[in-house]
Please model this.
Amino acid sequence: MNKTLVYATAFALASATLISAGYSSAKTDDRVPNVDNNVVFPSTAWRIVKHTFQLHLPQNNNALSELVIDVPSTVAVSNDIDVLDDKGQKININVSVNDRKIIIYFPKSIIYNTKLLIEFNKVKQPILGPASVYSLSAKVVGSDVEIPVGLARFPTSIDSDDKH
Model:
């Protein structure tokens, strides 16, 4: 019982110290403007999220050999990436990360006429600000030409691009 009381008292004192340290006040004078109760918030808060998008590979095309993804400057993507087929089976891939570009290399097996689910498992993204927009292109077997595929857009918690 005494330990609980001591811990509770220590917690209350520490909380009071931390709370009062975040505020400022000015000398009160009814004749001049003054500042009271300012609170400092971090200018950027980050969180770890998972970005997932689906890529449809049409019929009658060459097999996919690479998926090239330009990562927006608003996020930090780890190399913890999974690719699943339309049955939910994990596809064996190799990943190369070079600055803001991720290249997913597919195995020699035929990757076509399917839907792929690409999962970026540990993305560091700000809570505020513009949406994160990835630009995707692909290479097919037998060609070194990058074919634009599209964009994947992921809003932040409070997306400044949204018009409410």
